[in-house]
Design goal:
alpha+beta; 2 helices; 2 strands; 35% helix; elongated
Length: 49
């Protein structure tokens, strides 16, 4: 199986990033915008009757 040339890393784990870089994997770290987690959590809430 061919190895990808580039990946998006959604993990904020410094160790995971370090391991991928040691393997020579090019990556871009995806971090949520400030407040995005709260907004996403609120979207999952429902008002009960």
């Amino acid at each position: 199986m061919p190895r990808p040339d580039f990946i998006y890393l959604a993990s904020q784990s410094p160790r995971r990033r370090q391991l991928l870089e040691q393997l020579g994997v090019r990556l871009e770290l995806l971090v949520p915008a400030p407040g995005a987690e709260a907004a996403a959590a609120e979207a999952l809430e429902a008002v009960l009757p």
